[in-house]
Amino acid sequence: MNMENINRYINNVIKVNRGGPESRSGSLLFVASDYLVLLTNEDGVVYYNLTHVKSVTADSMQQELEDLEQLTEPLDFEQILNFNMLLENMKYRFVRINRGGPEKVEGVLTEMNDGVATLISNNEIINVSVFHIKNISLVDESKEEKKEEAKEENDSKE
After folding, report:
1. H or E element in which residue 30 lies
2. Closest CA to 28 of 16, 39, 18, 17
3. CB-based contact 83:72 (threshold 8 Å)
4. Which end of the chain, N or C, is less surrounded by CB atoms within 10 Å?
């Protein structure tokens, strides 16, 4: 994917990929040499590896942009030269790699070695090839716990 083509959509709502578990819509915040930064309603700030971005669609759904503009927290996101350096900067933080499907994984990123990211998740040590990381985001554990509690509460009402 050509970085120059994507740069023109900064601060606009786009959809990354056409469908599937990795597809998200949101506001494009930043484009680096090999990744882009997208602010989404579902996952907050998501870093997409451009190697796996198949399409970028300009989205005319202004409602989503208005929802994103209502965020009260200041945006804090990484603006680092390349994807490997970005991953290196996320060491020792709780992350979610990929959005869904069988390759989704969450844990603490502990090591970056020879193109492999190592995560600790529960009692497992997970090694993920950096090439196969489609996207990554930091996970706010307190927000995740609140989502889980709300889901359980809704499930018990049914």
Report:
1. strand 24-31
2. 39
3. no
4. C
Whether the pLDDT of residue 77 is over 90: the answer is: no
Bridge partners of residue 128, in order along the sequence: 117
Sheet (strand 56-58) strand order? 56-58, 13-16, 24-31, 35-40, 44-49, 135-138, 94-97, 105-113, 116-121, 124-129
pLDDT at position 72: 46
91-133: pLDDT as tens digits: 999 999 999 888 999 999 999 999 999 999 999 999 999 999 9
Residue 125: helix, strand or coil by DSSP? strand
The tokens describing 123, both together, are: 């009692």
Which residues are within 8 A (CB) of 62 and not within 5 positions of it... i.e. 6 or more apart? 13
C-alpha span between 133 and 97 (Å, rounded): 7
* Token representation of residue 125: 């040590």
C-alpha span between 93 and 26 (Å, rounded): 23
